[in-house]
Amino acid sequence: MSSEKLKNVKTEVLSNNYYTLNKLTFDYKLKNGNWVTQMRECYDRGDGAGILLCNKEKGTVILTKQFRMPTFLNDNKDGMLVEICAGMLDKDNPEACIIRETEEEVGYRLKEVKKVFEAYSSPGVMTEKMHFFIGEYTDAMKVNEGGGLESEHEDIEVLEIPFTEAVRMLNNGEIYDTRTIVLLQYAIIHKLL
Ligand SMILES: Nc1nc2c(ncn2[C@@H]2O[C@H](COP(=O)(O)OP(=O)(O)O[C@H]3O[C@H](CO)[C@@H](O)[C@H](O)[C@@H]3O)[C@@H](O)[C@H]2O)c(=O)[nH]1
Ligand SMILES: [Mg+2]
């Protein structure tokens, strides 16, 4: 970690339970040349990967629906969220991660995926970088019902819906997860379906 605008970086671990919340104190050089001491809390839970699964022949996509406690705490009535299939890297590379997550969460075994971009999820507070993919699936690739890992108490509903329905949900505000919005918009822009 180095930057000409940064010195005296100190890290204090505030919480190290499931993931890690650090308090960073550092001197930062402003545009006017003055140095100021700043403090930022940074949540580190590693990086993630997400995928929009498309079936061009059927004109369908696969999304998931699951309970997300942080959204329940902030305005999402029942806490249920429609999302792309996604997961934490857990030491895998992004491609291996998203192929594993696709089989665990929605039950399809992919051979290849296409990386389309990577982006910071919430750069003011989280270290997380997300790797975004498009994957083509067919009925023949189905190997189980999906649903997520019982050992982690994942309880994921698999939604296979027409792309036109996903676009309708995007346009009328029924889809309000950023990762899902950006991949659906990618599919619209590049006329994937
Ligand atoms: N006990 C416990 N379990 C946890 C905790 N946080 C997460 N888990 C478990 O760890 C699992 C991680 O599942 P993944 O599929 O690997 O991750 P994800 O939560 O779907 O991650 C995706 O969504 C996140 C957005 O909320 C993204 O941040 C991430 O990059 C990725 O896209 C969760 O389902 C949950 O069971 C926690 O604080 N305590
Ligand atoms: Mg997941």
UniProtKB/TrEMBL annotation:
Recorded catalytic activity of this chain's protein = GDP-alpha-D-mannose + H2O = alpha-D-mannose 1-phosphate + GMP + 2 H(+)
State whether it acts alone or in a complex, and with which partners, per the record. Answer: Homodimer.
What are the TM regions of this chain, as residue ranges?
none
| NCBIfam families the record matches | nudix-type nucleoside diphosphatase, YffH/AdpP family (TIGR00052)
- Does Transport count among this protein's keywords? no
Q: Which domain of life is it from?
A: Bacteria
The entry sums up its family as follows: Belongs to the Nudix hydrolase family. NudK subfamily.
Name the species this protein comes from.
Mariniflexile soesokkakense
InterPro entries per the UniProt record, alphabetical = NDP_pyrophosphatase (IPR004385), NUDIX_hydrolase-like_dom_sf (IPR015797), NUDIX_hydrolase_dom (IPR000086)
Does the entry feature the keyword Hydrolase, yes or no?
yes
Q: Which UniProt keywords apply?
A: Hydrolase
PROSITE patterns with a match to the protein in the record: NUDIX
Record-given protein name: GDP-mannose pyrophosphatase
Any single Pfam family the record assigns to this protein: NUDIX
Tell me the leader sequence span. Answer: none
* Needed cofactors: Mg(2+)
Domain Nudix hydrolase intervals: 44-183
